[in-house]
Amino acid sequence: MPKPSILIVDDEKAARYGMKKILQKDNYTVYEAKDGAEALQVIKTHHSELVFLDINMPQLDGMKALETITAMKNPPLVVIVTAYGSEKIAVEAMKKGAYDYIAKPYEIDELRIVVKNAFEKLNLQEENVRLRLEIGRLEGMGKLIGQSDAMKEVFVKIEKVGTTDVTVLIEGESGSGKELVAMEIHKRSKRCNEPLIIMNCAAVPETLIESELFGHEKGAFTGATERRLGKFELADKGTIFLDEIGDMSINTQSKLLRVLQEQKFERLGGAETLAVDVRIISATHRDLEEEIEEGKFREDLYYRIKVVNIKLPPLRHKKEDIPLLANRFLEYFSKKHQKRVLSISNEAMKLLISYNWPGNVRQLRNVIESAVVLANGEILDTVELPEEIRHPENNTATLKNIDHSLSFRDAKKMLVENFERDFIKKKLDECDGNVSRAAEALDMHRQNLQQKIRELHINK
Q1: Rg, C-alpha atoms of the chain
Q2: pTM of the complete model
Q3: I need a surface site. Which of 154, 186, 210, 266 has the fewest CB within 10 A?
Q4: Angle (deg, nearest 10), helices 62-70 and 36-45
Q5: What's the rounded Cα separation, in Å, for the pair 311 and 170?
Q6: Distance of alpha carbon 364 from alpha carbon 358, whole angstroms
Q7: Is the pLDDT of residue 268 over 80?
Q8: How many other C-beta atoms can be found within 10 angstroms of the C-beta atom of residue 24?
Q9: C-alpha angle 81/87/93, rounded to 5°?
Q10: How far is CA 270 from CA 219, 265, 267, 428, 430, in A?
């Protein structure tokens, strides 16, 4: 891998030499230019990712050079170098597109922190570009696909909210595609060329979540050896996706509410109030209204994040989408693993459709990848499918075979749904499919039983 490259633009040779010596020691490729005009030529010849640009230079000064650099197709990040006490000029430069500034004389550690943060931002930008290219290349793998009525409703909402700036709450079980919905909304927004920063609130320890969200200053707590930018700062002008927001503590919820209301915050250990322009999309597998009743989620925050609500159906409630999804995954993984697997047998597809999919689309994706790797011919058959899918008579979720990667709430829901489905199916069989007789035998109102039959997708 080539070393990251930095361009130092300063009319003082001694200033360039000192900075170059530090950065080369840190394993960066360093270029030099004595003024703005020479800097533009160096950028054309050697595309540096980061530029340290002095303000006061002969011929083409820093401000004019900055305007030309930021207008480039793929501009580098620019850090303005000013004299001590010239912060107003630096702020003006940042309004014109500079990433940050550093004042002379600076400490070596201060320089290194600025460089580290700049390349962290660049890496995030590159990752977002890579993901967008990957999504396009997979022709559907990274996008939401479906032909069921439930998914068509989701698509309509995405199209409507994508061009707005409203907050969106996405609800759905684990593996149902909540992150993909957030990506599709961001892609359709006016912020699509800015970062989409993703944070899984359930994956970050409570002691670190505020630092992850808002950043921290050096010395803010034990182990904070340098300044760190938080997710909100990195998402400025773009979108932040807070996955599993229902797992966030009440204390952090209060601080998040302020950011939503004022678009302002402070880094941990910092006194400066930072303003950001960020769109917030949230997601959860929890029932937040139930969490509110139990005192685990703030009601005022709930209504802030839920201007628009998108509910993703679990895969077992949209089984007509399974063939479409399975074939898309088959095509992708056949190319990825260089296997010539062209289709799925009718028997294998029937088993895929009959399975209950506790892990939703993510589980289907993993099953198809495994089957493609194991396949011996051009047709994926039942022998390549996992044991629990090959034997549908054992598909009923029990405490012994329930997917333990599920949350307690989702596992409980799965067990209850399977019990209801099996119990009602057995009673309908005993009554030869007669709903009125089955309702009487179950001690249920006929309309309630019909509703359950629809919800559980029972074939009378």
Answers
A1: 28
A2: 0.57
A3: 266
A4: 30
A5: 6
A6: 10
A7: yes
A8: 13
A9: 65
A10: 10, 10, 5, 66, 70
